[in-house]
Design a protein that fits this description.
Elements (H helix, E strand, L loop, with lengths): L7 H11 L5 E5 L14 H5 L31 H17 L4 E5 L8 H4 L6 H22 L1
Parallel strand pairs: 1-2
Helix pairs in contact: 3-5
Length: 145
């Protein structure tokens, strides 16, 4: 579709609206699939390796554990990471008439160094994520006006 100049999201959204269906966009906040094909690492991650939760050698720190895959996750302790996610959300909201947004925190639920190491998020980190969700809500309310 992309090669033909077609926008798959817009096509899906149009179909839903034509058939009285809601269109809820799901946004996976911290995808790690590039760990399986490192050449697929997103440009933002390539240009900002300091914003990742680790490096390729960190995968060896957790042998036999799914934790070893999370080094490609972004570290939400950095304002730049949260801003990047807000910018993506703002872009989608400016280009598409979505009926809702699902923030997918659970597919890859590692967002800070503490959680990368298997510990609970600190109160400060919980505050960071709550603040991020508040910013998303504010953005949605502004756009929906």
């Amino acid at each position: 579709l992309a090669d033909a100049g077609r926008d798959a999201m817009q096509l899906t959204l149009d179909f839903c609206h034509e058939h009285d269906l809601e269109f809820v966009w799901t946004y996976r906040l911290n995808d790690i699939h590039a760990v399986f094909e490192i050449e697929q690492l997103a440009r933002f991650k390539k240009q900002n390796p300091h914003l990742l939760l680790g490096s390729p050698r960190d995968g060896d720190a957790f042998p036999g554990s799914d934790q070893r895959r999370y080094w490609t996750a972004l570290n939400f302790a950095y304002k730049e990471v949260r801003q990047r996610r807000l910018d993506v959300i703002a872009d989608v909201l400016s280009r598409y008439d979505v009926d809702g947004i699902d923030l997918d925190f659970m597919r890859h639920p590692i967002f800070f160094e503490s959680t990368m190491l298997g510990r609970s998020a600190t109160p400060e980190e919980l505050g960071i994520m709550n603040g991020f969700v508040r910013q998303v809500r504010k953005l949605i309310l502004e756009v929906s006006q």
